[in-house]
Recover the amino acids of this structure.
């Protein structure tokens, strides 16, 4: 042990408080946490009871420093809390090697902590029981994602369990684990001074020489909507594939956010179709007087398997002239609950909507409804030309209170109904961090409610902000059943893309309930699989059923779908022929068609669908930059989900393919994608 550590050990031994003092300090600390926790949530009501915070109490049991960081994460704490923090912090260290140990369950006390420290506080029986039953550090870490990270003095960040964390732990023989964050050896400073540094205001990391001890992050409650990857299907057994189109882009932005923060994304957060459709493509557009969109099919060699081919289906929507767009009625439904106070949530939301306002026309109207402790109409329907009035209402928004999402949603729809006129488009835009308590616990009841409102002609789109409690699953359910889109905004640049560059496509629908159905020819195709669209699968009979909901296409929007197909006789066939079934018989159909593509859609507001169909031929289309780049992104998404069907094709191959197909790239989106591939390669260790 170094001299500095011995000095620290001696200092801590000298400062050990009496048992009764420890219990009193702990009880007062929990009371102070209750006092400011409600302020953090923005509510003026009584404080939330400590017994309702199992995560907090678990931190007391197995990570004392974690509680200390939480207690001192706000600059407005009273001086008494600082005194208690020092006492508790000293208590957390054992007399051997400065390691952290589990707190014993405190006994109820009613004794003043110090002169002038305030009234005595008694810990309840429930609080004592919650502390004793709280999970260990290992248990909390196992169910918390993303993984805790180690921040080194150089500023580099790596996921726990990766090489950086392992090497740091190995190099620092006296290291201890603080609330899931690995802290290097203790500094050569007196214990009280060290604890004062740990208890830095605003939750900032305490710095000791070259070592940074990061404040603990809140428990991760993110939930993503996804399913197992589509399997390879035998054409003779199941020749027809049916699904709804998807123009959402949330998944790509979430993947980018994860990688930029130094960890691989949760595989469930990766929806490959949303990654592909994130990018603008210059697909052939329909001519005037034709259908509102045009499909283009390309057949090309699969980059990751020489024995298979890809059927690339590209759909390009028309872009109407500006003066032909109908007036727009927008209701911003904004989450102002306490969880929205972070800089990448409500402050970013305000900046994002500020950008959007510049794209609206004088005849468009805007209203603002908020939900927190209760729902309220912050701004009545206002002409977009009254920019200063709208901006003033936005700037007055503050985060505070708990969620009341159902009331907010109901009021937003009511406002939208009041704004609606014939020939105009009404849309509710829900902006939230995902902690959206809709007040309807049954998913089917929620779906029914949104469907009923959809039938009234009002669309619902969802914008997600922030990470940690992002409820992507609820966002997807709301947007899909509300005839809208879901996007995730993590930077102002993303807000520029979604709410400025692609605003027209996001807000002005040109085709509703768009469905795709492909019938593959078993004489030519032995097997096939659809890449992505797992959450958009439809039954075969749903294709002709006009009451079944599907995705929407906005003005100027492009949509891409990719199948991997295996020709009859290819060595790449994965399934063996059956001994007693007809699939072992030779094919009798001499048609050269690979398959038959059909699309159904409705005009906005219509109830009867229209049909478009075209055969898929072996030599269709041209593998241009758009086709090849979207293929590279399809491969990238599969790698992030495990790459089950990619053989030895890896990140280097994806990078090479994407780099060679960047084309003009006027906004730099494709260049950014290549950088993300490189990050993913480094983080994966491949």
């Amino acid at each position: 042990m170094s001299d500095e550590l011995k000095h620290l050990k001696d200092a801590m031994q000298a400062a050990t408080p009496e048992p009764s003092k420890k219990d009193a300090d702990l009880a007062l600390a929990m009371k102070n946490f209750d006092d400011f926790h409600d302020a953090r949530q923005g509510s003026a009501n009584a404080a939330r009871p400590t017994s309702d915070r199992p995560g907090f109490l678990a931190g007391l049991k197995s990570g004392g420093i974690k509680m200390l960081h939480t207690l001192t994460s706000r600059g407005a704490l009273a001086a008494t809390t600082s005194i208690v923090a020092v006492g508790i912090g000293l208590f957390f260290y054992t007399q051997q090697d400065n390691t952290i140990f589990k707190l014993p369950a405190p006994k109820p006390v009613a004794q003043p902590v110090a002169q002038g420290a305030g009234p005595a506080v008694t810990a309840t029986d429930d609080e004592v029981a919650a502390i004793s039953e709280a999970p260990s550090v290992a248990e909390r870490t196992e169910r918390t994602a993303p993984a805790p990270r180690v921040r080194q003095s150089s500023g580099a960040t790596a996921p726990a369990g990766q090489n950086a964390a392992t090497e740091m732990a190995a190099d620092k023989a006296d290291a201890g684990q603080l609330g899931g964050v690995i802290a290097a050896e203790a500094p050569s400073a007196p214990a009280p001074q060290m604890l004062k540094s740990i208890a830095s205001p605003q939750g900032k990391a305490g710095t000791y020489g070259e070592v940074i001890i990061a404040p603990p992050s809140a428990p991760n409650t993110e939930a993503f909507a996804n399913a197992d990857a589509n399997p390879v299907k035998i054409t003779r057994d199941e020749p027809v594939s049916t699904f709804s189109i998807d123009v959402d882009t949330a998944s790509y932005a979430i993947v980018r956010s994860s990688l930029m923060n130094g960890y691989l994304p949760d595989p469930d957060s990766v929806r490959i179709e949303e990654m592909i459709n994130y990018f603008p493509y210059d697909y052939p557009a329909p001519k005037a007087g034709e259908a509102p969109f045009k499909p283009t099919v390309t057949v090309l060699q699969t980059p990751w398997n020489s024995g298979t081919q890809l059927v690339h289906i590209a759909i390009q929507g028309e872009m109407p002239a500006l003066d032909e767009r109908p007036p727009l009625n927008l209701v911003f439904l904004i989450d102002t609950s306490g969880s929205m106070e972070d800089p990448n949530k409500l402050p970013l939301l305000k900046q994002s909507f500020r950008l959007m306002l510049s794209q609206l026309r004088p005849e468009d109207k805007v209203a603002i409804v908020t939900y927190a402790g209760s729902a309220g109409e912050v701004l009545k329907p206002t002409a977009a030309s009254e920019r200063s009035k709208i901006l003033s209402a936005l700037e007055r928004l503050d985060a505070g209170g708990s969620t009341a999402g159902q009331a907010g949603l109901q009021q937003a729809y009511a406002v939208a109904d009041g704004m609606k006129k014939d020939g105009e488009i009404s849309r509710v835009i829900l902006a939230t961090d995902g902690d959206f308590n809709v007040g309807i616990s049954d998913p089917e009841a929620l779906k029914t409610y949104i469907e009923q409102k959809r039938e009234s002609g009002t669309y619902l789109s969802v914008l997600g902000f922030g990470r940690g409690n992002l409820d992507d699953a609820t966002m997807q359910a709301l947007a899909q059943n509300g005839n809208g889109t879901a996007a995730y905004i993590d930077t102002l640049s993303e807000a520029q893309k979604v709410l400025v560059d692609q605003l027209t496509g996001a807000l002005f629908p040109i085709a509703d309930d768009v469905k795709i159905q492909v019938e593959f020819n078993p004489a030519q195709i032995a097997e096939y699989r659809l890449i992505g669209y797992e959450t958009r699968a439809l039954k075969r009979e749903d294709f002709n059923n006009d009451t079944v909901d599907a995705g929407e296409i906005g003005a100027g929007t492009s949509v891409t779908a990719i199948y991997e197909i295996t020709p009859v006789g290819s060595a790449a066939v994965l399934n063996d022929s059956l001994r007693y079934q007809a699939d072992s018989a030779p094919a009798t159909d001499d048609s050269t068609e690979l398959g038959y593509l059909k699309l159904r859609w409705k005009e906005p507001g219509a109830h009867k669908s229209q049909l478009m169909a075209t055969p898929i031929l072996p030599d269709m289309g041209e593998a241009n930059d758009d086709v090849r780049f979207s293929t590279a992104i399809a491969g990238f998404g599969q790698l992030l989900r495990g790459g089950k069907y990619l053989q030895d094709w890896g990140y280097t191959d994806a990078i090479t393919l994407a780099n060679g197909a960047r084309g003009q790239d006027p906004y730099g989106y494709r260049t950014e994608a290549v950088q993300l591939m490189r990050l993913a390669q480094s983080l994966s260790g491949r």
Remarks:
- The two ends are 38 Å apart (CA to CA).
- The CA atoms of residues 57 and 131 lie 5 Å apart.
- The chain has three domains: 3-213, 233-245+260-320+510-684, 323-507.
